[in-house]
From TrEMBL:
Protein keywords: Carbohydrate metabolism, Glycosidase, Hydrolase
Family: Belongs to the glycosyl hydrolase 100 family.
Annotated EC: 3.2.1.26
Job of this protein: Invertase that cleaves sucrose into glucose and fructose.
Name the UniProt record assigns to this protein: Alkaline/neutral invertase
GO molecular function: beta-fructofuranosidase activity; endo-alpha-N-acetylgalactosaminidase activity
Catalytic reactions on record: Hydrolysis of terminal non-reducing beta-D-fructofuranoside residues in beta-D-fructofuranosides
Organism: Eruca vesicaria subsp. sativa (Garden rocket)
Top-level taxon of the source organism: Eukaryota
UniProt enzyme class: hydrolase
């Protein structure tokens, strides 16, 4: 099917709903709200919800050109044969008609954060904080940090920087990577890179970090997954398949996949990781099978499945992907899922069960259930726990993994709803005064000493240890829209708007309710800025969520009762 050009899509949207367009002013691109359907402006949240109820979120789904492949996806642009395929905007928000002053400031800051290589924008710097004494590596382009920037640029109709970034990181992947005398796998993607300008020779060069310079020498397992996810977002947003189809992109995907699809000693389909291998890049007791990596792995597998060519090399991966997705969705939906009923079952578990008939397969000792959980777990609601491995369930809640589980449809529709129920029911704990807690609860005293190794940056309710990260706002917003509950996002955005600009776009907030600017938080942290913009643009035009969201695969096996998993 021929892909519509972005302009076609944008024009079509513009005639039906609100749209932000970018205009050039004083050399800085700004966004301007445009609207031609004024009646929507009068709608309040209740009306929006009524509209959503009338037009269930499945209306967001469109068959795409990859439909012949077995994993279909939520796609808003794919069905377009020159027309915009979404009949009516299900909701839009008033803000689009009167953009918040923060939006303009955020765009200025985002454009300022661009990094250029030989005159071409290739990414955004992690933080543009001149006041900070310690630069560390915040002057670099981080792969994970660039994702919200990339989405903001794509949503604003500026895909070039995203394409340049994807190609530049692919080149970096192609270089030999060594830590001391040890060579890393070919597929490894960098955590970050830096462009060095030589003003005398007038040359630009790049240095990359695969973990060999990072604090603690942590390997970024998430980078490769984000790269694949971003390639799909680019393809969805622009309709330009030629990038993903390039031999080097196909090879890049295969290299990333071969790192995580190789056979080994694993008894679980989840991916075994070291501590600090993702956004939480310090020791925080997330080694093993952290939810963040599992959810990103799942989403990357589905994304790759939709983009890999069915040639000899690609086909081999496709088969492996389908098998792994099936095994993973079963494993995660059954063993990582926790709700009131499940908690009650674990509370009553017998231990030391041998054989296939075991109910308590991982030999979780009920005494290891932490006290806080009994009060925290609402009657309605649930979430994917942080980690599951032998005799170890990390019951902590992690925001990124749960939002990605919703967006990738790793969570069933019921589980997705339950996660949103939990966020609403435990708003004070998980959102408080600044969206969103990276994890809950914080590790304190003895646990903090043992688990973090007495990390002074990760003291209780700070940074990765229960700190609140504005960047997570875009993920919460996307999940809220996908589940048809935009009022949750609206509430969170209101909180962010009360503080973020005034506080200088901090990297994170501290405290039980996220009230204080983080102890060592950078200011003008790019992903805090971009995360806000992405959240705003998705609320203005919910079709944007299609870039980063996937509907449930129809052929995916339903959740089975854990005690029956061996008997089928
Ligand atoms: C910190 C964060 C990490 C982020 C980096 C750059 O190391 O833990 O997630 O990518 O800063 O912002």
């Amino acid at each position: 099917m021929d892909r519509p050009k972005k302009q076609v899509v944008l024009r079509a949207v513009n005639s039906m709903s609100s749209l932000s367009t970018s205009v050039q002013e004083n050399g800085v691109k700004r966004i301007r709200a445009v609207n031609s359907l004024s009646s929507i402006a009068e709608l309040d949240d209740k009306d929006l919800l009524a509209l959503l109820a009338d037009q269930p979120r499945l209306n967001l789904e469109r068959k795409n050109s990859y439909d012949e492949k077995s994993f279909s996806e939520l796609s808003l642009y794919d069905s377009l044969d020159g027309r915009f395929g979404w009949e009516t905007p299900t909701f839009s928000i008033n803000d689009s008609f009167n953009p918040h002053p923060m939006v303009t400031q955020a765009w200025e800051a985002l454009f300022r954060s661009q990094v250029f290589f030989r005159g071409q924008p290739v990414g955004t710097i992690a933080a543009y904080d001149h006041a900070s004494e310690e630069v560390l590596n915040y002057d670099q382009v981080f792969v994970r940090d660039f994702v919200p920037s990339a989405l903001a640029f794509l949503m604003n109709g500026e895909p070039e920087i995203v394409k340049n970034f994807l190609l530049k990181t692919l080149q970096i992947q192609g270089h030999e990577k060594k830590i001391d005398r040890f060579k890393l796998g070919d597929g490894a993607m960098p955590a970050s890179f830096k462009v060095l300008h030589n003003p005398i020779k007038k040359t630009d060069s790049i240095i990359a970090d695969f973990g060999e310079s990072a604090i603690g020498r942590v390997a970024p397992v998430d980078s490769g997954f984000w790269w694949i996810i971003l390639l799909r977002a680019y393809t969805k947003s622009t309709g330009d398949h030629s990038l993903a189809e390039r031999p080097e992109c196909q090879k890049g995907m295969r290299l990333i996949l071969s790192l995580c699809l190789s056979e080994g000693f694993d008894t679980f389909p989840t991916l075994l990781c070291a501590d600090g291998c993702s956004m939480i890049d310090r020791r925080m007791g997330v080694y093993g099978y952290p939810i963040e990596i599992q959810a990103l792995f799942f989403m990357a597998l589905r994304s790759a499945h939709s983009m890999l060519k069915q040639d000899t090399e690609g086909k081999e991966f496709m088969d492996k992907i389908v098998k792994r997705l099936n095994a993973m969705s079963f494993h995660m939906r059954s063993y990582f899922w926790l709700d009131f009923q499940q908690l009650n079952d674990i509370y009553r578990y017998k231990t030391e069960e041998y054989s296939h008939t075991a109910v308590n397969k991982f030999n979780v000792i009920p005494d290891s259930i932490p006290d806080w959980l009994f009060d925290f777990m609402p009657l309605q609601g649930g979430y994917f726990v942080g980690n599951v491995s032998p005799a170890r369930m990390d019951f902590r809640w992690f925001a990124l993994g749960n939002c990605i589980a919703i967006l990738s449809s790793l969570a069933t529709p019921e589980q997705s709803m339950a996660i949103m129920d939990l966020i609403e029911a435990r708003w004070d704990e998980l959102v408080g005064e600044m969206p969103l807690k990276i994890c809950y609860p914080a590790l304190e005293s003895h646990a903090w000493r043992i688990v973090t190794g007495c990390d002074p940056k990760n003291t209780r309710w700070s940074y990765h240890n229960g700190g609140s990260w504005p960047v997570l706002l875009w993920l919460l917003t996307a999940a809220s829209i996908k589940t048809g509950r935009p009022q949750i996002a609206r509430r969170a955005i209101d909180l962010a708007e009360a503080r973020l600009l005034k506080d200088g776009w901090p990297e994170y907030y501290d405290g039980k309710s996220g009230r204080f600017i983080g102890k060592q938080a950078r200011k003008f942290q790019t992903w805090s800025i971009a995360g806000y913009l992405v959240a705003k643009m998705m609320m203005e035009d919910p079709t944007h969520v299609g870039m980063i969201s996937m509907e449930e695969e129809k052929h995916m096996k339903p959740v089975l009762n854990r005690s029956f998993s061996w008997s089928i």
